[in-house]
Amino acid sequence: MTHIARTAARTLTPAVLLAIVSCGGGSEERPPVGTVSEPLTFTFNCKAPGTGFGDAFVAPAPGALPFVPLNSLKTAPNPIFPPNPATGVPTLDPTLAAYYIADVTAATQLGKAFFWDVQAGSDNRTACATCHFQAGVDVRTRNQLNPGANGLFDGASTNYPLAAANYPFVNGPAGALTRNVDNVTGSQGVRPMLFKSATTGAETTSATTDPIFGTMRQVTGVNAPTTINAIFNHRNFFNGRAQPEFNGVNPWGARDPTARVWALNSAGVLAQFIVSIPNASTASQAVGPPLSPVEMSASGRTFPDIGIKMLDSKPLALQTVDPKDGVLGPLVVAGVKGLNTTYAALIRKAFYPMWWNSAATVKVNKKSYTLMQANFSFYWGLAIMMYETTLVSNDSPMDRYAATRFDPVTGLPKTVSCTDLTGKQTLCVVQGDTTLLQPVVKRLGDAGITVPAATGGTRAVTIDDILAGLDLFEQPVPVPGTVGLPLRTTTMPGAGAGCAFCHVGAETTSASVRNVTVGIELGEQAFKKGGFDLRLERMLMGVRSPAPAPVPGFWPSAPQPPPPVPYGSDIITYDNASYALSVTDIKNAPVTPQKMSVNTYDVGWYNLGARPTAENVGLGGTDLNGLPLSWTEYFQKTLANPATIMVPGGALTCVDQFGLPVAPPSAPSGSAFAGLVMDPSTNFPILSGGLSATESTDVAGSFKTLSLRNLELSGPYFHTGGKATLRQAIELYDDGGNFANATLPPLIRPLGMTEDHRTALVAFLVSLTDDRVLYQRAPFDHPSIDVPQGQDASGADLMTTIPAVGATGSAAPLQRFLGLSPFQP
Question: Is the pLDDT of residue 312 over 70?
Fold first, then answer.
């Protein structure tokens, strides 16, 4: 069990302890690997003429693919329904099946009703779905602005109607911005109010005022991320505060040792239990907004109070549900609003009796509640998690195409021998069935969407655009001095945009459960077997100060930060005590040794330079106890010996002038680390080793790497909501970020894209749109919901009705944010 759970077990009396161990917990139980008794210094050389060291972003092992090819999301295991070891069939997690969920269908029905029911809001007008009603996000355009860090509505106001001309909020590379607005496109929630009491179906509240929004609906300070595919996220919320283990009460998981739920013990007596349900960050996330005084709740309301209001209520009583709804249909009477049951009845069916079957009352915050009322957060979180396990969009045209590049038996990519930039033979992934991408081209053409033509005017989007975008997405960044970013780079390893290093695997995010617990790349799996913690990584960040000189033909200005190790560096000196790296010979020209920055960070969480770090520190913030949200800094601050946390290290190898691997310097062929520079004292790649309590971290201003599926429909983008189209989002990366923040990762540097490159990447992203999401077909069908869109002159809500949709979906596709083309600058 985790360190926190073990401490609770020793001190919790007389309550009964039920500890369900979370994946990745128990940091102190990881054995020290390769412990070094004394500091050692090693010197490594790339001796062949024209060779030098390259960083991990451009240096695949010889004979191996230079990237993790994108595969269909159907190949990614659902964390809540992992494959049965015997049959391979996705089956409810054994822990959930044994202890909690008695009926999957009922739990899913309960979760969908909870998610869409406006009765959950203190105003009877606000549901979870109010901020996630279209493709899992919020595309409302009036009263959606938060004033941002400066507290001022720059060029706008409350109740402001957004338009295309407002975007992007920020434009241009660091130091050369042509626009700089710190407003945030958030989500309007509830009007400010105080909770008084609750009865079945109703609440008594009193109105208050907010310093910024007065008496009108308040707006969140962060854009709403999608709920679709959120089940694959190891942590949720943009800053990761929704923990991977669900404690049944709040988002904080094992970080809150006081969290308790109630249940009948073996003697039939009510007692408090600690629960820690693994891979359940969607449950942890779900219990946050209902008590937020900005998002859904009157100040002072508790989950037991919501239980008083909702348990005996008719689910979705104020809304229409299609009789053919894929989940709720069996509970619908045609022509009658809501469901033909109560929340209490669904709970009795969905959960085992130990969690609800008692007439006794319990005390919560010195108030008496029934068992069902007291455990309402527990039901709420798990039921919404069960519903969100169905919201997986794994059937886009790109999913179908990607699947044809893999062997259905072995699951490995189909490869052919091909020629790289230097004329050497290497391996390339075969081209799949391109006809599967034709529906994307047709859809865009039917909508009249065109892109700039190289010869002037406009042209239609083509399959070649999509394939070129896939190449740019998968391939590593090119070395300085090469001529731009070539299109269709399949036979040119090391000549892409490097997107897949952060948007890794079928989940297209390195923040996925699979990536940080098992590992997707071969090297990560080897680290896992060695006892390393895949939630962290130690990486070379380069010389951050002073900034290097511009490289003609590649970077339009000096990047901040530069590549980790200057390309062509011939000799490096490595100190395995401090993980410091010095370059002593660059391109055969004697120089003063430069000490490279080496920082550790949380995998899947990066600072993109969308805004200055000080405005929103993201993962650099703290939890309910004032401890770091970041695992890296949490372990540094809370463990007596942080070195028990073994951190995987970013690797180096010798490369030629094209950034292609040559002359493996250390690890033997066939090793999981073949071709990489190894620390002979540990037999792991350099930079790998125990976490130091004092080493530098790169977590401030970092935010979760989102999945890329259905991005076409989920604008505006980033945690600020400051980009309205995919083209504008791509420009952030092409600019190397808009702000030169100190913790920018090395990949965030100017890319020098052409218009064709931007078109290609946007076309690729559009190909990741699942038609079931686009047309709201099951499992993406839903009840009706009235959403507020600002207010009129009298202060009354302006409401927009989102009609109910059944399993067969709608005739018309969903519209993008502000109706904009994804290719619009």
Answer: yes
